[in-house]
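Appendix B. Worked example

We walk through a single record from start to finish. Start with the input: the chain for Type II secretion system protein GspL, Hyphococcus flavus, length 400.
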Amino acid sequence: MNETLILILGHSPDESVKWAFLDNGEVRLADKAENVAALALIADRARTARQIAAVVTGESAAMRAMPAPPRAAGQFRAAAGFLLEDELAEPMAGIHHTVSRNENGAGQVFAIKRSVLDSWRNAFSEMGFSPDVFAPDFSLLPAALERAVILDSPERVLGCIGLQGFALEYPMAENVVVSLLSDSSIKEIIIYGDRTIAVANSEEVSVDWRGPVTDDVLFRLYGTALHGKSIPNLLQGEYRKKRDWTAAAGRWRRAGMLAAASLATIAFFSLADGMRSLRLADRLEDRTLDLHATAFPDAVDADPRSHARAILASGGGAPVFLPISTHIAESLEEIEGVQIDRVRYNAARGEYSINLRVADVQRLEEFKRALQGRGVAAIEAGGFRRSGGFFLGEMRVSLS
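Next comes the structure step. The output line below is what the pipeline stores for this chain.
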């Protein structure tokens, strides 16, 4: 599915969570969960979402703007560490920080305590799904030089003055916000909220009052930011979430991954011959369409078979994964007692890495001979080990 799931978190995993599924910027379904554990009710739909974003309260994070950061990523990150160490006056060993650039190249540095981030990751680890993006709420406001954006709710204020974001609770926010808005560099102010905020030099500044801060307003603002080119995300470095292989695949590599998925489906059928039915075929067809839509977002409405033929006919050399896939499938059908647990395709080498589960060594040798008889080289990678009633190991397969 092409939905984005946005989770507006509380101060801890035990507090309530506002959530919404958005599609093309529109809220399709929204509600509130009692706590993170209660999100289990939407876990099935969450796992089909294109993106899951967790929005943490800005009071638990810090941000610093760097209008002209170093161009090299390593130098940018190192400079950000020095900046935070000077300003936060805390040992950096307990702080996790990330960097990003906005569309104009200006730098933004975000920091959060590792203990806070770890508590959220542990809470989500039991849910069966986890966020792709973890960002402070103020970082998802539309930042721009000479512009201020203020979200004034009854208990707290979110804001972005130029490139610098912040979150403050009342009563501290009352005087601080007025002071920040008096910055002479601000030429435009956008305010959401019912409270009247004093604006200095109001005759020289454009002030746009856009009504109260509602959940719908928050989800729309956050959804717009999450579809931008530069998304602030605390899940970097050691906290980076492993990317979905279909999203990370390139043009030919994506097609190869689809072929690998097809081969995995064949392996599944070899384990469950008695479960073939029309309903299962329909489910696999739906899964194929979802996989195709994820790998090729620009051709969501195209038939996967026709689209694959068009890609293969567009040039760039003959993809070798097609004959390899065919030969592996034929060999699996010929030799009993051989199962595939995992399939990976390396486009650069033109080879499959397959994790096998075989009943005995003799079946393994028969499977290798069946492949070799079809012109496919099969090489064991690291040998096979016995586990229970099977032998487990990895084999690399390529055209000989």
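Two observations about the output. Residues 251-271 form the longest helix (21 residues). The radius of gyration is 26 Å.
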